[in-house]
Amino acid sequence: MRLMRREISSIRPREGKGALPVRLALAALVAAVPGGLALPAAAEPPAVVHYRASIDTVKYLFGPASPVARLGALLYMGDGHAAMGDAEIAGTAIEVPLRARVQVSVIKHRKIAWPRFESPEAIMTVGAYRPLDDATRIAFTELVKWIHQDYGLSELDAYELLSQVATVHLNEMVDPNFVVVASIDKKYLPAPRPPAR
């Protein structure tokens, strides 16, 4: 995803010292969910929430992937942010309209249960649930699966590796569900296996 233009580099708050850095991001990615539901995050039941990647962070601008539940699914991207602190604790960032150029690829014959992100340096998975420990467990379970499927480590070896070098980030805690991102730097992983045909 590439944002078209940046006309400002900082925002000066009404009170306080210094300017806030501008870090533009589209913070929501939504694909079709079972039953065709499309609900705002605050109304989503747990069975639906994992089809909505409310990433709400400016750190994951590369390669978001989201499960798609049906043929002919539509894709929504939005929730433009100019700046946002970790966890979005007050329920809002500096919300702005954004225009972006986006390249979308459909990966057929590949199932994922929860949203994923990949940057040149790391792979990341999302858990969005309550309580916080369940969201964290989901994120790490999905990361273990990804490492096993794409990098060839056994699930136990992937679990042990993550216990040693993984990072975890609390992205959002204001909606009914906590959003947690678990990640691992690619320098700790073997070369990826070629995709199955």
Could you describe the 3D structure shown?
This protein has 197 residues and is α+β, with helices and mostly antiparallel strands. It has a single domain (2-188), classed as Roll (Endonuclease I-creI), CATH 3.10.28.20. The chain is built from 3 helices and 12 strands, in the order ββββαββββββααββ. It has helices at residues 46-49, 132-151, 155-165; strands spanning 2-3, 10-11, 20-21, 25-31, 52-54, 75-83, 94-95, 100-101, 116-118, 122-129, 167-172, 178-185. Strand 2 (10-11) and strand 3 (20-21) form a beta hairpin. Helix 2 (132-151) packs across helix 3. The radius of gyration is 17 Å and the shape is globular. 30% of the residues are buried. The model is unreliable at 1-6 and 38-53 (pLDDT under 50).
Give a short synopsis of this structure:
This protein is an alpha+beta fold and 197 residues long.
CATH architectural name: Roll
Structural class: alpha+beta
The ordered string of helix (H) and strand (E) elements is EEEEHEEEEEEHHEE
The shape, in one word, is globular
Number of structurally distinct domains: 1
Beta strand % = 25-35%
Write down how many β-strands occur, each being a DSSP E stretch of 2 or more residues: 12
What percent of residues adopt helix (DSSP H or I)? Answer: 10-25%
What do the pLDDT scores average to?
77
The largest β sheet comes out as: 4 strands, antiparallel
Radius of gyration: 17 Å
Low-confidence parts: 1-6, 38-53
CATH superfamily: Acetamidase/Formamidase-like domains
**CATH C-level label:** Alpha Beta
Question: How far apart lie the N and C ends?
Answer: 27 Å
Tally of DSSP helical segments: 3
